Amino acid sequence: MAFLADVLSRVKPSATIAVTQKARDLKAQGRENGLEYKASDTIVGTGGKQILYNAFLVTMNPGDEVIIPAPYWVSYPEMVAINGGTPVFVATTLENNFKLSAEDLDRAITPRTKWVVLNSPSNPSGAAYTRDELKALTDVLLRHPHVWILTDDMYEHLTYGDFVFTTPAQVEPALYARTLTMNGVSKAYAMTGWRIGYAAGPAQLIKAMDLVQGQQTSGACTVAQWAAVEALNGPQDFIPKSRKAFEERRDLVVSMLGQAPFLKCPKPEGAFYVYPSCADAIGRRTPAGKVIETDADFVSELLDAEGVAAVHGSAFGQGPNFRVSYATSLNVLEDACRKIQRFTASLR
Ligand SMILES: Cc1ncc(COP(=O)(O)O)c(C=O)c1O
Hints:
The protein is α/β, with parallel strands linked by helices. The protein has helices at 22-28, 47-57, 75-82, 102-108, 131-142, 168-171, 203-216, 222-233, 238-258, 295-306, 330-345, and strands at residues 42-46, 65-70, 86-91, 113-119, 148-152, 179-184, 196-200, 273-274, 311-312, 322-325. The strands form two sheets. A seven-stranded mixed beta sheet has the order 1-7-6-5-4-2-3, with helices on both faces. The protein has a three-stranded antiparallel beta sheet with strand order 8-10-9, with helices on one face. Helix 5 (131-142) links the parallel strand 4 and strand 5. The chain is globular. Bound molecules: pyridoxal-5'-phosphate. Pyridoxal-5'-phosphate binds at residues 47-49, 73, 119, 123, 152, 154, 184, 186, 192, 197. Pyridoxal-5'-phosphate is lined by residues 47-49, 73, 119, 123, 152, 154, 184, 186, 192, 197.
């Protein structure tokens, strides 16, 4: 099976690109995580989203499969589907902290599998894989040389306690040649609006992504690239401070939701989300007599009753759960969690 998509044979490079992607070269002079790449193995895009989208665009042929552990960030399956591929969802469990197991990964792989998408720490669950957990997955992938790894490390800097972040290419260097490692400045640097994401991977793939990007946008906005260079090379002392603030918020939310009737709230390692189960609330009635049949009912009734907004888990491919973002102040979170407690206590 050829790795690159047939669509590429129909595209010629843009002859008029004047943008010199200096940020890419600067970035390539040193990368985090002990990963070494040449400039030609890296790409800067208009957000992590463009990187992911183009990775699928240049590799997917109709019928190709992409393994996506659930719960997942909502854009992965849509991007796969737009590009003619078939998302293959693999369920995880709350007991396993929403992490993909080696056995389930192995079972999901078929001759049509092109990519497996790993996102650690995860949006929506906050789950992050330890080195050992990743090693179990990379061991499986070593046995399936046609499967590539797309790792979305967007929340890398947002991990808590003594958790140590690692990424698949670091854990298993033998997978370097078929791993695309994606990152960006949207989360840790709170620069979502600047739209800068970047990735490193094998030159053949990067070249193909560069080719299509040349016809889409020419390149990421240079002003934003320089802003990202400043963010990445500038003082980093705010990162431990924001981690500490997020950790306090996570601990508060996990503890308060853990005390809410009918909810189970695991403690995730990173990102700024928790993903409690509301399975025990399903089938119960609100004081107004409405039966909660799904997690979508749960969040909708919660919004009506208490004005607290959360996203139902079925939107992320796994429920009955709901996602709470704790990217807000402790006061707001405490008030919201109290309201969630009051709401679940009112169910009969
Ligand atoms: C897991 C994950 N990956 C990628 C992105 C997209 O990042 P960017 O703003 O760089 O496009 C997000 C944004 O919400 C995300 O949660």
